Amino acid sequence: MRIVADDAIPFISRVFDPAHQLTLLNHREITRESLKHTDILIVRSVTRVDEALLDGTDVKIVATATSGIDHVEQTYLQSAGITLINTPGCNARSVAEYVLSSIYVLGRKNIIDPTDITVGIIGCGHVGTCVASLLAATGCRYMLYDPPLQAAGDDREYASLEEIQAADIITLHVPLDMEGPHPTYRLVDEHFLSAVKTNAVIINSSRGGVIDELALLDHLNTDKLASVVLDVWENEPQINQALLSKTIISTPHIAGYSLDAKYQGVRQVSEKIYKLYPADNTIPSPDIALPMADRYLTVTDAMDDNEVIQFAVLSGYDVSKDSDRFKQVSNGQEDYSGKKFADFRKNYPVRREFTNFTVCLPPSRKMCRLQLEGLGFKVTLQENNIS
Questions:
Q1: Edge-to-edge, what's the strand order for the sheet holding 378-381?
Q2: What is the mean pLDDT of residues 358-382?
Q3: Closest to 344 (Cα-Cα) out of 332, 358, 327, 360
């Protein structure tokens, strides 16, 4: 098979048999001309897949190594008989850890108290569910809001929108839907923001278009909101510099960029492509494995339980480091280049998920064990205070 893939997708060259023709291209090089004699196209969210890109090509399968598919014109693919593959849930834990890290960074900055907040989760699919799981492990109160899932008969307890708007933190985990019974485009608009609790924090790691950025900036300028955490922007890769300056935490769409999530994405893609073809003459099942990282965190008796959890979470992933780097790159420049945004993502350092860390607890700190294990950490007890 003739395969074209975005060269920024890690592991991609390792999951297909060398007998197949695999061409790796920069996302800017993925054009109709480069796809004329291609059977399978594998992309990231930065590539708009539509009739303008695919008409007149041989593409039969489009695979995106992402959970979201709003960059794909699904109606056209269906009419053209092109199969669409995506990877739902591949980065759910990575994004959920981003949200939890943000909460503890806000706590470190004394903007909130992570031990005494209620979090409103809008969107309860793979990511929102994972966020709820991590919050539950820490003992944090949370509420769920997802009208489509609720209407479909999901039996979890859901809050009203008014209850969500009264939360201390509102975190968004919805797809970008422009129409339909539950559109999410600019879901957070002037009307929504006017009903939000004073000094609340909004976290958006879903899609930039879910928030009306001008309305958000107006509310930040009035000091009604404590702040916002933004990983996604309405006009990526160009960003609103005025809004950036008002954020406590801002990053260039990297919440789901853990190495583990990238691995799961490409693995799901290759496995699904494999299932579409007979095993005897086309793409083999991937044979790569992502090694676990042996990373150890040692806790002291001087820490109380809450300090242990904060220490583990921020040692596993401290989002403020990504935010500081991003702000230095953009630096309030009016001529900020979208290429800088893309380069930051392309050159993003390796980040591993909590499951790759072992927390060494003193014997006296056994009560923390269940919380840490609920967050995904491995836990071991120190012997004679030696880790």
A1: 295-298, 357-361, 378-381
A2: 91
A3: 327
Q: Which residues contact residue 243 at a Cβ distance below 8 angstroms, ignoring those fewer than 6 apart?
A: 213, 216, 217, 220, 228, 230, 233
Q: Could you give the count of Cα atoms lying within 13 Å of 33 in the half-sphere of its Cβ?
A: 2
Radius of gyration of the chain (CA): 22
The pLDDT score that the predictor gives to residue 271 is 87
Angle between helices 126-138 and 92-108 (to 10 degrees): 40
Whether this prediction's pTM lies above 0.85 is answered by: yes
Among all residues, which ones are annotated catalytic?
207, 236, 253
Single-letter code of the amino acid located at 338:
G
Count of CB atoms within 10 A of residue 190's CB? 13
Do 64 and 43 form a contact (C-beta atoms < 8 A)? Answer: yes
pLDDT exceeds cutoff 50 at 387: no
CATH number of this structure's domain 92-250: 3.40.50.720
CA 135 to each of CA 106, 131, 150, 275, 299: distance values in angstroms, whole numbers, following the listed order: 15, 6, 21, 36, 21
> For 306-319, what is each residue's pLDDT tens digit?
999 999 999 999 99
Residue 17 dihedral angles phi and psi, to the nearest 5°: -60, 140
Q: Where are the domains of the chain?
A: 2-86+258-275, 92-250
Domains 2-86+258-275 and 92-250 fall in the same CATH topology: yes
CATH architecture of residue range(s) 2-86+258-275: 3-Layer(aba) Sandwich (3.40)
Q: What angle do CA 38, 39, 45 make, to 5 degrees?
A: 80
Q: What token pair was written down for 224?
A: 């009604």
Structure tokens at 262: 């990238």
Model confidence pLDDT, tens digit, residues 278-311 = 554 555 555 567 877 889 999 988 999 999 999 9
